[in-house]
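To: structure subgroup
Subject: Chain for Friday's discussion

All,

I'm putting the inputs and outputs inline so they're searchable in the archive.
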Amino acid sequence: MGELILIRHGETEWSRSGQHTSYTDLPLTPLGERQARALVPLLADRHIELTLVSPLIRARRTAELAGLAAPRVTPELREWDYGGYEGVTTREIRRTRPFWNLWTDGVDPGSPEHPGESPAQIGQRADQVLAGVRSAAEQLGDGDIALVAHSHFLRVLTARYLGLTPAEGRLFQLATGAVSRLGTEHGRPVVVALNLALPESLQNLSAQGG
């Protein structure tokens, strides 16, 4: 296997405002579309053999505009289910829970369809994706694999790739429309690059999910 290329989708209205966005299927903003197109030269020198993409439109549109061929829709790449905190900002949550921290406290329950997920559950889902990636890599040789998905999920996946706990995903902020790369050094997992983007693409550095 080459490298694991992580791509957070371009900006949406809620990533710009800082609202937690999991299952709400928002489109990219005009800036988000420009961010996605700006990925083309950043990926041009990569030999990407396989692209896996979240089913949500903001991720699928990003993959399309980035020129990634034949992306495979992968439900496990969906964003952290924020349950009762869907559409709510951290500032709003902390009005009633001043010390709330997503990484350790999780979320309030939501509807039966979207009850919310704990950090441990996200870690299990990230492990499932990584197992699938490793299996696919055995068939692909030295090519890269790209994952087009969402902030908090990709942060947890980065932590699990490195052998860290799901909560240690807090250490890796991912900007909208940016590329990060995971690889190995002397056989051990490392972060090769974080938040590669053209200057305009870094206008939204929100740490909120989506």
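Points worth raising on Friday:
The first strand starts at residue 4 and ends at 8.
The first helix runs from residue 13 to 17.

D.
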